[in-house]
Specification:
binds glycine, Glutamine Phosphoribosylpyrophosphate, subunit 1, domain 1, 6-stranded mixed beta sheet, globular, about 400 residues, 8-stranded mixed beta sheet
Length: about 400
């Protein structure tokens, strides 16, 4: 975390006032392109947090392994990393302090799918979604039933809440923020929020949370990051799509979902067609970002269908982003709170990473990790320049601009 206290505080104010880079962000980035794989090579694309595990998945693909197994090999990396708080072990919990995980997968060659949602105590929900696909006559299992199925299949129950995630959750509790109340799509969102949103000037908010973080024993070097996650709840997530040299494809998405969510909330990640969709005849796509928005445009399915009808991976992804924009009639006051990235892979190996905004935080551009013989991180192409603001907004006392 490189943000200074001063930058952080001014960031709060700018975000709340809507005069940051996002405020003047109506012009689309002109860089309409997707990339091609090295001829005939297998390809893996995934969210940036999977970069360290690309080699493992790619090695499996190259040795003739199954595409879904390769994708799982990538995403289980972050699932098992206690320091990745967007997924699996160490994921940021729901409002009750319980880590609740979601995942779904599609296996192109067999045209099968599996999904789990709201799962407690099982870190590898990517594998669990695959188990549902392989060992049940169902496609989706949720909650307690999914957990019991996991145990029956030999998964270990374990505590997924790390000390770091627990302390950040306690900091959030102390800040008295929550997800009850109006959503972005509520026509009266401004009026309803005015009555209930935390009100303070940026400096006071920072000072109070910094003091609480110290009391909770959050290490000095971790405090800014923890405060940021409290004020701007992240959505985390990793998606991975894999294409073998023989043309077989699969996709998978896994997440701990929106931080501090209401228990039982499902985002897009376990929804086949939203968080992930693979069609062996066409391609594969997946999403990270604002789950509620992506569900409403069935993002991954929309993208694959767009490609089926002749769009390039880039255009197909941009079209899905524009459907989100359309849902808000282009209202930038609201769209600045939406964060969405799509990872798109066509059956011929052409791929694209597209996002609504350049990044979710200054200095943190959205990236797509790619391996087609050479592992690399590429910046996504964004529809708008600037960084998204996380919901719910913070109101600055003397200037209420939401
Ligand atoms: N995209 C992850 C979520 O909203 O839960």
């Amino acid at each position: 975390m490189t943000l200074s206290r001063r930058e952080f505080v001014s960031g709060i104010a700018l975000g709340a006032l809507g005069t940051s880079a996002t405020g003047a962000a109506a012009a689309p980035t002109i860089e309409p392109k997707q990339k091609m794989r090295a001829a005939g090579a297998p390809v893996i694309v995934c969210a940036g947090n999977g970069f360290a595990y690309l080699e493992r998945g790619y090695g499996l693909l190259k040795s003739g392994g199954d595409t879904l197994d390769s994708a799982v090999a990538v995403v289980r990396g972050p699932e098992e990393d206690p320091d990745d708080d967007s997924v699996g072990l160490g994921g940021l919990p729901n409002e009750e302090g319980v880590v609740e995980l979601d995942a779904c997968c599609m296996h192109g060659p067999s045209r099968r799918a599996g999904s789990v949602g709201g799962v407690h105590n099982i870190k590898n929900v990517s594998l669990l979604a695959r188990e549902v696909m392989l060992h049940t006559g169902h496609v989706m299992l949720v909650g307690e039933g999914a957990e019991r199925f996991a145990v029956a299949r030999g998964f270990a129950r374990e505590n997924l809440l790390t000390e770091a995630s627990r302390k950040t959750w306690l900091l959030w509790k102390e800040s008295h923020a929550d997800w009850w109340g109006p959503g972005l799509a509520d026509p009266s969102w401004k009026e309803r929020l005015r009555g209930r949103t935390r009100t303070a000037d940026g400096s006071a908010v920072f000072g109070r949370l910094d003091g609480l973080a110290r009391e909770l024993g959050i290490a000095p070097q971790d405090r800014l990051a923890a405060i940021h996650k409290v004020l701007f709840p992240p959505t985390g997530t990793i998606h991975c799509s894999a294409l073998a040299a023989n043309g077989e494809m699969s996709g998978i998405t896994t997440t701990s979902g929106l931080a501090w969510k209401l228990p039982g909330r499902l985002g897009d990640s376990p929804v086949i067609g939203a968080g992930c969709y693979t069609d062996q005849d066409v391609g594969s796509a997946g999403a990270t970002g604002s789950g509620e928005e992506n569900i409403k445009v069935a993002g991954a399915h929309t993208i694959v269908e767009n490609m089926r009808h002749g769009m390039s991976p880039f255009d197909a992804g941009m079209d899905a982003l524009k459907r989100i924009v359309r849902n808000y009639s282009g209202d930038m006051e609201r769209l600045k709170y939406v964060d969405m990235t799509y990872y798109v892979l066509r059956k011929d190996g052409a791929y694209a990473g597209v996002s609504l905004w350049t990044g979710y935080q200054a200095g943190h551009p959205h990236t797509i990790a790619v391996h087609d013989g050479t592992p690399r991180l590429e910046k996504t192409v964004s529809l708008y320049e600037g960084v998204s603001q996380e919901w719910p907004p913070l109101i600055v006392a003397d200037k209420v601009h939401i």
